TrEMBL record, chain B:
Biological classification of the source: Bacteria, Bacillati, Actinomycetota, Actinomycetes, Micromonosporales
Name this protein carries in UniProt: Uncharacterized protein
Keywords from the UniProt entry: Membrane, Transmembrane, Transmembrane helix
Cytoplasm is among the record's keywords: no
Keyword Membrane: yes
Membrane-spanning parts: 73-101, 121-138, 145-164, 170-188, 200-219, 239-257, 264-281, 301-321
Length: 109, 337
């Protein structure tokens, strides 16, 4: 799973959000490191909808603009959980190796 | 509508119509929400992102979303058809050689008895192995054997070049088709039997049996005088020889489903065009050898080179139009699903 996809699913795991709210939330949870652009966001949303990982929650019109809210499906939650476990496992391995490296005084550069 | 919104909408035209119908209003909303007040032009980063994503959506609409159920599946079936044709040609040549050999011709070449049979025998073995591996669903073995088929075809060209003491360009088109078969099997993502139904494979077998039978009858009748009109007989045998096996293969392709069979037709047309072009190139090269390159010759070579691409482009365009019309007929837009 690519990072934008993971971040979009993470944003929707909390509550249904519309496109701009997803962009804002992703910027928040990554401390501003990732700011999704509209093209990237809607490519991810379209693919995730086609794969059944998200679905439309509701639509609103605010100041003559369409806002479509998306929510995570059960399959999307499972997929996010699996990806989270995978990342956690890899991070654990990396952490353990770094700790071991530090304990033996570090490898020569 | 502000100037900025008009410009964003213009940029969004890069997306396919189905995508725009589903997301344009939403995307404009997002883009306008993210734009600084007073901005009149889209930011370069936004513009590039939309262009990239729009082009990807367009290409994806044609290729990505159909991957595995479209072109790659069609490549497996087309690869089998071409391998069958190469095997059939080799069997036919071997049968003719064996008949001559049985009548006392030593089939001698380069001072070695029977050497002229080595080429069709090797081609028969390798292409029958390719067909068998493809039908059994051994994808990697099929690709490996087809690559070996390329080497066998190249070896056959070398052998005949040594025998006739000229480049054996008359076998060039078969070498080209061997490369095409290898490419098709390498590109495919599933075995043939996962694409064609059991009935489809039975039809392929039936086509092969018909071709073998007509070939055997044609060989045996070569010494007989037909009792009916020879002109009519030729038409009949041409139809039986090419028409019936092709019909059986077309019927087999039909069982692959609407999307895949259209792609099989396009790929088969491209392969036929490649075979024609390679044979025509043989003539162009032969002319060059005797009269040197001419402007007309170079132009012919360029046009010939472009023909398979034109057939592929035309085929893809026609398929796209047909599928778009069918989707409209069913009120179906993928992005809305």
């Amino acid at each position: 799973m690519r990072e934008p996809t993971f971040l979009v699913l993470t944003a929707l795991a909390e509550e249904p959000r519309h496109g701009y709210a997803v962009i804002e939330d992703v910027a928040t949870i990554t401390a501003g490191r990732v700011r999704l652009r509209a093209g990237t966001l809607y490519a991810a949303l379209d693919r995730l909808r086609a794969e059944g990982l998200i679905e439309v929650d509701r639509e609103e019109v605010v100041q003559s603009r369409l806002r479509r809210y998306y929510r995570l499906t059960a399959a999307g939650a499972r997929s996010l959980a699996a990806e989270t476990a995978r990342l956690r496992s890899q991070a654990t391995i990396a952490e353990r190796r770094l700790r071991a490296r530090a304990e033996i005084g570090g490898a020569p550069a | 509508m502000t100037t900025l919104e008009v410009r964003y909408r213009r940029l969004l035209r890069i997306y396919p119509s189905g995508h725009r119908a589903a997301y344009e209003e939403e995307m404009v909303g997002v883009l306008m929400s993210g734009a600084e007040p007073g901005r009149r032009f889209p930011s370069p980063a936004d513009a590039l992102d939309l262009l990239r994503a729009g082009l990807t959506a367009r290409l994806g609409h044609s290729f990505h979303t159909q991957r595995g159920t479209g072109w790659r599946a069609a490549a497996a079936v087309t690869g089998l058809f071409v391998a069958l044709a190469l095997a059939g040609g080799a069997v036919s040549r071997l049968a003719a050689g064996l008949l001559l050999w049985g009548r006392g011709d030593p089939m001698r070449a380069l001072g070695v008895d029977g050497l002229m049979l080595a080429d069709p025998a090797a081609r028969t073995v390798i292409w029958l192995l390719v067909v068998t591996a493809a039908v059994l669903g051994l994808r990697r073995a099929t690709v490996g054997l087809a690559a070996a088929g390329v080497l066998v075809q190249a070896g056959a060209m070398l052998l005949w070049s040594a025998i006739v003491q000229l480049p054996a360009m008359f076998l060039f088109w078969q070498l080209g088709l061997a490369l095409v078969v290898t490419g098709l099997f390498a590109f495919s993502d599933r075995p043939v039997r996962a694409v064609l139904s059991g009935r489809g494979l039975a039809l392929v077998a039936a086509g092969t049996v018909v071709a073998a039978t007509t070939e055997a009858i044609a060989r045996s009748r070569a010494q007989e005088r037909p009792w009916f009109d020879p002109g009519f007989a030729e038409v009949f045998w041409d139809l039986a020889y090419y028409g019936l096996p092709v019909l059986a293969l077309a019927a087999a392709a039909w069982t692959a489903g609407r999307r895949v069979r259209g792609r099989i037709a396009v790929l088969s047309a491209v392969v036929l065009m490649i075979a024609f072009v390679l044979q025509a190139l043989d003539q162009v090269v032969t002319e060059w050898r005797y009269s040197g390159p001419t402007a007309g010759g170079v132009l012919s070579a360029v046009v010939l080179f472009l023909l398979p691409f034109a057939v592929l482009g035309g085929g893809v365009l026609l398929l796209g139009l047909r599928e778009r019309l069918a989707d409209r007929g069913h009120g179906h837009v993928r992005a809305h699903e």
